[in-house]
């Protein structure tokens, strides 16, 4: 039978080619031969590249797979229901895992982020390797991993150095790593670059360059953004937990609203998404974010940045909460307060300033956030794959669940650096203490003079 | 005749297909049909992609083109000679231009870098558009340019803010741009990202994603690295001129040595490169760099970083040269000095420390630098183009001349940040002055306490 099928298909191919020949013959434009041939090449390329390559056989992609114990448990249910149960069970498991990791604190979160990042990278690279099929060069895959390690070394190093430099500097060996961190990272990268150039094989030039680019784009998406996630965690767990929960909430609520009220299609890319879901999800996210922020603002555990305490000699998450997390009275606008006072309400409300910032986050996560998902689903369509992988039964790959989280993390990071985080005196002091003692003294005198000249400090006689 | 040629070629194509059919038929392995078909697809893909796409018709690529006045002047010369003269004339013109720009100072250099960067980006993007031929979506090109502008806004902004923040902060409007710089940049980027997702057209998914990746890799290569070049310029012109000249010197001398002594091929990728050229070029570059550094160390114009002077109220390149550029005595190792003193020489030498650093630069530029060139030539081979463009007669595109410069610039930047530049008291003072006055005072007292507790500053009664 396989023989029969093969012949039929070969005949099909021959037919297609013939059709092309006819077209080429009948093309009577005045252009030269070369352009004609190019045209027919475009067609066949379109078949394969323009409209997507079918990778369904190569990428372990599927949401239907369920672990054995669930499979046997649910065998009597209809398919549709079984999928639902599997999806539900694993959503619950992921949520539990998320809570456990939060309970584990910043280190546990950092390690989880790293694992998620590596898994996402692997899924993207796997797709790349299936697309370009350079099975003849198996160690080319090692090169991708080498670049992953190098860039992680660079980015994680940068953030650890920035945060814990003073502590790290106490050990001689670590001090060398800190001082020459960029140089070491760059040397490692150059090693990979040279290896890449040396690995070029004539027949595969184009594929190799494509995969090189593919690897770098994956690094850009996954590594740089997960580095920003780590930075957010260091600013205080709330900057991590609230945005992540918002994306999850938006996902779920958009689905729920879409399911019950969905009528108007939102975007061609994802035919199942509707305007009703988009708006309902967005509204829910804003409310949810506001309430969640209110709760979290009350716990120093969520609110304090992770700092090294000289006094304790260890890391600490205790602090005097910053102004963002202290209840503040906001006077309502006149037209509103006039109305409210006649009704017997107060003319001001008392909220944590962070709750107001949470509005920006929730608006971003429900307006721009979904575009991360659209991007991912466009990408999957381009390569005709259903999911990025199959590690989470009922959900697909890790990348399928985290597509929107990366963009959100970048937004949070930028938001913090633009609106929240100003250089604090403490932070600058840390930097000053890096200087040699005589330079510290020099800075002291420079600052003193400057302050005196501007009469901020009373000149001493 | 064109008709005849076309038919012949079409017949050729049919023959190739037939050959493939035979192969497919004769393949009697136990694998299924799908894999068989995939195999034959690989072959045809290899023809077009694996072995490179012939873009010779699309990319304006050529080193033979000469401007009209030269063409008429040289018309009696044999082709080979004419190429030589054109190449020589334009090498000379470029060198002159380089000198004029240096004479013009840092601002002129910055603008030139920007222009070169834009040109390189254009050349890379042009190739991408020819490869993926999405002529149906002309405004997709605009999106690439939009990303170029956005990322330049971000990177140039970052470096200007870092360097001239204090000055910029004096104007209210500019202060807003500075304070929210990252937020504005990110918003601009998100705009492009959303536009990209909205622009996705079903038939072109794969091509659009490929070009999106292509654009981002181009940004990574061109924009980020040219940002590093700007940073190097700010550190002092010497950090720009010496490395650039080293790469040029290495290019020329490797060619000269290869021409006269070249026998042993160096790398398959560039058949004309030889070990003799590589070694001779490297040796010349080390000597050249050493001498050039010696000369340049004597001029404050080359040596001083560009700073804003409060006293002058303007930019200045006057300074007390740093220790790097002050002649220093180095005692020679014992075995050498014993030998030299018996010959009547001194037992120490006096050099500028920068000259020793120049050795690292020249070694990098002659060992790793050429790999930038190999990379570029591999890339050109993958796409079967001779040059990246044709703006410089006799040389090709801008990218052809700058392929090694980008990697070198990154090296210099990393080198400075690892080995040269430490936070200076002045630099930190600038940061302190960003704080609010009361915070400046707070830092002052914190620092004072700290210095007193460590007895660096005598405690006041």
Automatic annotation (TrEMBL), chains A, B:
Membrane recorded as keyword: yes
Superkingdom of origin: Eukaryota
Pathway(s) where this gene product acts: Phospholipid metabolism; CDP-diacylglycerol biosynthesis; CDP-diacylglycerol from sn-glycerol 3-phosphate: step 3/3; Lipid metabolism
Enzyme Commission no: 2.7.7.41
Transmembrane intervals: 89-116, 176-199, 211-230, 236-262, 274-295, 354-376
Subcellular localization(s) per the UniProt record: Membrane
GO molecular function: phosphatidate cytidylyltransferase activity
Keywords assigned by UniProt, alphabetized: Lipid biosynthesis, Lipid metabolism, Membrane, Nucleotidyltransferase, Phospholipid biosynthesis, Phospholipid metabolism, Transferase, Transmembrane, Transmembrane helix
GO CC terms, sorted: endoplasmic reticulum membrane
Class of this enzyme: transferase
Stretch list, region Disordered: 21-45
BP GO terms, sorted: CDP-diacylglycerol biosynthetic process
Membrane topology of the entry: Multi-pass membrane protein
Composition bias, Low complexity: 24-37
Chemical reaction(s) catalysed: a 1,2-diacyl-sn-glycero-3-phosphate + CTP + H(+) = a CDP-1,2-diacyl-sn-glycerol + diphosphate
Pfam name, any one: CTP_transf_1
Keyword check for Disulfide bond: no
Cross-referenced PANTHER family: PHOSPHATIDATE CYTIDYLYLTRANSFERASE, PHOSPHATIDATE CYTIDYLYLTRANSFERASE, PHOTORECEPTOR-SPECIFIC
Assigned protein family: Belongs to the CDS family.
Protein name per its UniProtKB record: Phosphatidate cytidylyltransferase
Organism of origin: Phyllotreta striolata
């Amino acid at each position: 039978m396989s023989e029969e099928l093969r012949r039929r298909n070969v005949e099909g191919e021959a037919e297609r080619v013939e059709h092309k020949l006819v077209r080429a013959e009948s093309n009577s434009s005045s252009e030269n031969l070369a352009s004609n041939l190019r045209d027919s090449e475009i067609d066949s390329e379109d078949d394969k590249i323009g409209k997507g390559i079918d990778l369904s056989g190569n990428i372990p992609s599927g949401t239907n797979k369920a672990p054995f114990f669930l499979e046997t448990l649910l065998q009597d249910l209809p398919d549709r229901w079984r999928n639902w149960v599997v999806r539900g069970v694993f959503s619950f498991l992921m949520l539990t895992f998320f809570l456990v990791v939060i309970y584990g604190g910043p280190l546990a979160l950092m390690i989880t982020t790293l694992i998620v990042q590596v898994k996402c990278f692997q899924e993207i690279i796997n797709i790349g390797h299936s697309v370009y099929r350079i099975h003849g060069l198996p160690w080319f895959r090692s090169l991708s991993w080498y670049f992953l390690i190098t860039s992680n070394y660079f980015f994680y190093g940068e953030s650890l150095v920035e945060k814990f430099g003073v502590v790290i500097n106490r050990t001689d060996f670590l001090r060398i790593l800190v001082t020459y961190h960029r140089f070491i990272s760059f040397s490692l990268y150059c090693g990979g670059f040279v290896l890449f150039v040396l690995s070029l094989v004539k027949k595969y030039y184009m594929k190799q360059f494509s995969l090189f680019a593919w690897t770098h784009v994956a690094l850009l998406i996954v590594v740089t953004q997960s580095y920003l996630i780590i930075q957010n965690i260091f600013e205080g767990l709330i900057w991590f937990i609230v945005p992540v929960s918002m994306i999850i909430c938006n996902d779920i609520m958009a689905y729920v609203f879409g399911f019950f009220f969905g009528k108007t299609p939102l975007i061609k890319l994802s035919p199942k998404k509707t305007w009703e879901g988009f708006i309902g999800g967005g509204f829910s996210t804003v409310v949810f974010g506001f309430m969640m922020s209110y709760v979290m603002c009350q716990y120093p555990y969520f609110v304090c940045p992770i700092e090294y305490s000289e006094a304790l000699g260890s890391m600490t998450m205790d602090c005097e909460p910053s102004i963002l997390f202290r209840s503040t009275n906001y006077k309502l606008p006149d037209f509103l307060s006039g109305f409210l006072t006649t009704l017997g309400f107060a003319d001001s409300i008392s909220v944590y300033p962070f709750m107001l910032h949470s509005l920006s986050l929730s608006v971003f996560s429900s307006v721009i956030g979904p575009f991360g998902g659209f991007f991912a689903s466009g990408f999957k369509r381009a390569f005709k794959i259903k999911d990025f992988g199959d590690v989470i039964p009922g959900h697909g790959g890790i990348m399928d669940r985290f597509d929107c989280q990366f963009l959100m993390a970048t937004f949070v990071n930028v938001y913090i650096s633009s609106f929240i985080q100003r250089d604090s005196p403490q932070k600058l002091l840390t930097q000053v203490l890096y200087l040699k003692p005589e330079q510290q003294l020099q800075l002291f005198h420079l600052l003193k003079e400057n302050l005196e000249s501007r009469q901020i400090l009373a000149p001493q006689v």
